[in-house]
Amino acid sequence: MIIKAADLPDTIPVFPLPGALLLPRARLPLHIFEPRYLAMIDDALKTSTRLIGMIQPHRVPGSDQDRLHHIGCAGRVTALSETDDGRYMITLSGMSRFRVVKEVSGFSPYRKCEVSWTGFDRDQGPVEHDNGFDRDTFLDLLARYFADQDLSTDWVNLKDAEDELLINSLSMLCPFDPEDKQALLEAPSLSTRRETLVTLIEFALRGGSNEEMIQ
Fold first, then answer.
1. How far apart (Å, rounded) are the C-alpha atoms in residues 91 and 74?
2. H or E element in which residue 194 lies
């Protein structure tokens, strides 16, 4: 099912999961076991769009409360299976990024937000290409990063993947900090996301820390 921009709802349930990144046209598998999020899935399945907003929470200094970043990405529940003990294994297919207008109070056990889809038209457009992408140099850097992090991958499929699939999949899968994931999400274009990804990989290879990046 293709959801047109005009059909995107003004209010969506949100799942604030640190480090979990969803991008448009990508797929994110999730294991759902908390009662409030099981209820969220049940309610989402009753809607025509079946949308859930993935968003990064961040801790307010001097407080024990989490706030939400201003930008997240909504995904449609496109696969679901239930375990014998009532947990859900789902797949979200990324539809579009959104900007939080305000959090909506109510009686549901999970959080909801009024959102705006303005400014993210390309998310529902055709697959993006990165004309400045030097694939060989990038894959050499990636191989060093995977060796440094003791990660493994299917290099054959990786080398043959289209630009968007390659860059977005790595952005979602690499073990970056939540704030770095947020920077990848907010990148306005595929080439900007690739540049951000390269910066994060190079920084990790230098053994840097977030504190050093901030300084």
1. 12
2. helix 190-205
**Distance, CA of 55 to CA of 170 (rounded, Å):** 18
Query: Tokens for 174?
Result: 């690499």
pLDDT, one tens digit per residue, over 7-61 is 899 999 999 999 999 999 999 999 999 999 999 999 999 999 999 999 999 877 7
Res 213: pLDDT: 42
Cross-strand pairs, 104: 112
**Angle, in degrees to the nearest 10, between helices 190-205 and 163-173:** 40
Residue 54 amino acid letter: M
Give the start-end residues of each E strand in 42-166. Answer: 51-55, 57-59, 66-68, 71-82, 88-104, 111-116
In sequence order, what are the beta bridge partners of 100? 115
User: What would the two tokens of residue 144 be?
Assistant: 């060093």
Residue 90: what are its φ and ψ, rounded to 5°? -125, 165
86 Cβ partners below 8 Å, 6+ apart?
Answer: 38
1's CB contacts (< 8 A; 6+ apart) are 76
| pTM for this model (two decimals) | 0.89
**With contact defined as beta carbons under 8 Å apart, do 194 and 133 qualify?**
yes
